[in-house]
Amino acid sequence: MTPSPGKSRSATKRKYRRFLVNQPALVSCADVPGLVWTARIADVSRRGMHLILQHPAVLQSAVRIQWTNREIRGTVRYQQRRGGEYRVGVALENCCDSLLIDLLARETVALRKVDQEVLASAAALREQIHEMATALQAASQASEVKSRFLASVSHEFRTPLNGIIGFSELLYDAKVGPVTIDQKDYLSDILSCSRHLLTLINQVLDLTKIESGKMDFQYESVQVEALAREVMQGVKALAASKRIAVRIECHEGVGTVRADGARLRQVLFNYLSNALKFTSEDGSVLVRILPEDGVSYRITVEDNGVGIRPEDLSRLFTEFGQLGTARRAGSGTGLGLAITRQIVEKQGGKVGVESTPGAGSRFWAVLPVDPSAA
Fold first, then answer.
1. Over residues 186-192, mean pLDDT
2. Is residue 125 part of a domain?
3. DSSP readout, 54-118?
4. Which of 64, 81, 147, 200 has its CA 20 to 30 A from that of 71?
5. Residue 328: per-residue pLDDT
6. Least confident span in 63-72, 263-272, 322-331
7. Over the stretch 216-225, which tens digit does the pLDDT of each residue have?
8. Which of 233-242, 342-351, 359-368 is least confident?
């Protein structure tokens, strides 16, 4: 049975398989004695090879090739220029079975070496992964222990602290007897310090909940402007003490949204108290509420205070990321903005800040109108 032309071509291709070589060689021609050209052998088969020359050569039909201590004779089949190279096809006088066997042996050795290197790299990688997994497990356990410790200690602190605040208020309001002006001043300092300490403890508790993934949101219908005005009333005393004008502008397109009222109030309070802290006396703070892309709304708190240097912007919204201006303005943990970022981002929103030193800052938060749907 006569094989089909297609099968014959396939068999020929298998029989004369080409091996990529890419090695240097020297080429000479008997018709041009004394001239030797440097070439690069691109590939070899049992009956032929391809040479690459950087410059054109006067190669007649019969050529001699010096390669790896071998002398190979052949006949030039074609010469052509390809780009900046000259390609020469050579038909070999004799089969190069021994040469191909050497090439296969070299390929086998090289592949075995590569295989050994891959196995060694894989073993080293597995060891690194195991070490990293062990370290990660230890870090996770340490973080969990730390979170439980902070939550437990914070709760234990809050109970007696609330008692101190309660009894101090009774004394301050003279409900258990008259107090002198000096005593009232001392009681005022006690209340101020106690409330500040309670705020710090609550922030640590919030951070602990965030790190342990236990911060839950209770969504309800919230009128954003009304909630913002409530928060403004809460900081009214601080604003009045520095004669800072606080205004609210709410776009009519932002009415009732789905939100966790307590958490949204916390975001607004952190932004407002931060703005008041860094705004000089007789300054101004503006709360602006605008619709954003149809499914979100933007809250911006803008002040004309000291501003923030560009190199310090990246440290905002990070745990304990107090700047030098924050330490000079008053005490704190540096957790307020970090907690704000977590509250907003865990509801599918985002936060940011723009600031010019000496001209003020603009802190913003974008929240979805319905976080549960987002």
1. 86
2. no
3. SS-----SEEEEEETTEEEEEEEEEEEEETTEEEEEEEESS--HHHHHHHHHHHHHHHHHHHHHH
4. 81
5. 46
6. 322-331
7. 888 999 999 9
8. 233-242
Number of CB atoms found within 10 A of residue 57's CB = 21
Residues 6 or more apart in contact with residue 277 via CB below 8 angstroms: 326, 329, 330
| Residue 112 domain-assigned (yes or no) | no
**Is there a single domain that holds both residue 91 and residue 175?**
no
Asked whether residue 138 is assigned to any structural domain, the reply reads no
Q: Are residues 70 and 192 in the same domain?
A: no
Choose one of 163, 186, 211: the last residue of a domain. 211
DSSP secondary-structure letter at 4?
P
Mean pLDDT of 57-68: 84
Is 105 inside any structural domain? no
Residues 269 and 293 in one domain: yes
Beta strands 284-292; 245-250: pairing state:
parallel
Strands (E) in the chain, as ranges, are: 19-29, 32-44, 48-53, 62-67, 70-82, 85-92, 220-223, 245-250, 256-259, 284-292, 296-303, 350-356, 360-368
Rounded to two decimals, what is the model's pTM?
0.53
- Name residues whose C-beta falls within 8 Å of residue 28's C-beta, 6 or more positions apart in sequence: 35, 36, 37, 63, 64, 66
Q: Are residues 71 and 39 in the same domain?
A: yes
